[in-house]
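pls ignore typos typing on phone
nicotinamide-adenine-dinucleotide + seq
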Amino acid sequence: MKALVTGGAGFIGSQVADALIENGHHVEIIDNLFTGRRENLPAKAVFHHLDIRSDEIHDVFARGGFDVMFHLAAQMDVRKSVADPAYDAQANILGGINLLQACKNTGVKKVIFSSTGGAIYGEQVEFPAKENHPQNPCSPYGISKLAFEKYLQFYYSEYGLKYISLRYANVYGPRQRGDGEAGVVAIFFERLLAGQKAVIYGDGEQTRDFTFVGDVVKANLAALEYSDIGAFNVGTGIETNINELFDIIKEIVGSKQGRIHEPGKPGEQRRSVIDHTKINNAMGWKPQFTLRQGLLKTAEYFRKL
Ligand code: NAD
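k done
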């Protein structure tokens, strides 16, 4: 198959691209290298250094003749979306529409979208959240991801463009950047390994559903094989609070640093955990890595940096 991966220089996208190539698919990547890194790009992928909002992407689609688009390019920082909602919407909504128009015009058959189960549901009222949980995002990022899911439904009903929306929990693993504001696992590893101060925002009792990137890649491959459409949670169903996470990483790293708390950040939810029964029943996907196993793999990566 001919696959286009947007955001293929990023943390998750580059590992989806690697897996597609390993499975014998032709892969092209569009990425503006905003947070992505050139060294993540698979050697066998064709790389287009472009912004998804640009007109030039239409030439890439016209020449590429893609069967499927994996759409991962995004402004994906919740705090940044609060600080600059217009930028978030430009990248995540307008950029996404630009891509969908290109898919429609060039006969792409299916879109596999990296959505968020962390941010779409907002403050949860059921734990873990199923896909039909009320959707009241607490941040512009959650709103832009939800809006794009609605555009996917529109392009399917109007033009027959199939879609799968994979609503990830908090993804962690090798290649995640620790130099931004998002990605608490990467931030803790980078800071603690360098002997620097690692801060817990708020009381640290806020919870997340930490899901290993290798499992997320497998969900993307399963979505490629699946013939129906819809939105599916991709998470472990297990809640871990930030204090517990800090303590496990501290122990793996062998750091002596105690917990350091600073005031919480706006736009962040208190508890987040999602149910994966639907994707398990539909595609046979379930997480393979326990948190400790995934963190040990992640530690190997950060130690080599
Ligand atoms: P990432 O920042 O590593 O990847 C995003 C990639 O998109 C980067 O390579 C970046 O350079 C590129 N990009 C950003 N804006 C672009 C634009 N306008 N044009 C072209 N390229 C652009 O982040 P990630 O964690 O790998 O996230 C991948 C996808 O998964 C995102 O859509 C994100 O919203 C989604 N997601 C991530 C998580 C998580 O916990 N990491 C959770 C839920 C959903």
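Residues 7, 9-13, 30-36, 51-53, 72-76, 91, 95, 114, 116, 118, 168, 170-171 surround nicotinamide-adenine-dinucleotide (CB under 6 Å). The chain has two domains: 2-169+212-235, 172-207+239-273+289-304. more later
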